[in-house]
Amino acid sequence: MVTQHIDTNKYTPYIIHIEGTDWHAVCEQHSYPIDKNDFSFSAGNNKISFDGVFMAIHGTPGEDGILQAYFDLLNIPYNCCGSFEASLTFNKGMCNSLLKNFNITSAKAIMINKEEAYDTQTIENNIGLPCFVKPNRSGSSFGVSKVTASEQWEQAIKEAFKYDNQVLIEAFIDGIEVTCGLIENEGELIALPLTEITTENDFFDYEAKYKGKSHEITPARVSNEIKEQVQSISKKIYNTLRLKGLIRMDYIVEKDQAYLIEINTIPGLSEESIIPQQAACYGISLKELFSLTLENMFTHD
What we know:
- This protein has ten helices and 15 strands.
- It is an alpha+beta fold.
- The strands form four sheets. Strands 10, 11, 12, 13, 14 and 15 form a six-stranded antiparallel beta sheet that branches. Strands 6-9-7-8 form a four-stranded antiparallel beta sheet.
- The radius of gyration is 20 Å and the shape is globular.
């Protein structure tokens, strides 16, 4: 999706696949190993080096700051926030806990560690039912369960621990799910139109995100007051955490209050994804959006 819409009059894109320790470039239906010493590859007698990186990896190692630290060592710019900010935002529990100090509202939550004892009845008394059990650091809604009855606790926690050794348990908020994209344009932070998410499933899980089991409505069917509240909170978070690049923040709106769910520093960019829908509603093409992202990468302090 990204390579299809990059302005090739300005940029020459290459797709790099990173799967564990197997890093390779895909070029004209051939695969070439990446030299990790300088992030380059050789095709015949040609050595290809890179001016910058457009990160499009959900989860580790792209969304949690690992690759950002590697590129920092090589002085190669990239289109998203830095290693610390990525690591923080990927840690949902820690990030939301920190942001509460800046008056950003999120659901009541408890974090449990794999090696520690926990009592599900105590958790239930504290958080209540229904609630969500999710890996604290994971992407694409892997390992997330909605717990509606006491007998579901153990299975839900077991499933979440498959993806992380920290599990976040959050109170259920009964409201409308909305999401807000952000992009900078010549130093001005733009909040894109909100998208409302409705799903055929119990919540916005992997199937809903990637297999057509959800409906995204852009612009969201919310009042101007709610729209402005969500956009204002999103800008505050972006500036407080010193974020960078294309960002998407997810919320549940209950009555007149928006509750932050999580921050996506590398939001989905497939044809089904939300940011492309918001960009279209705002009146900006994907070529323009990606050009902005790349220009910011080379000019951002």
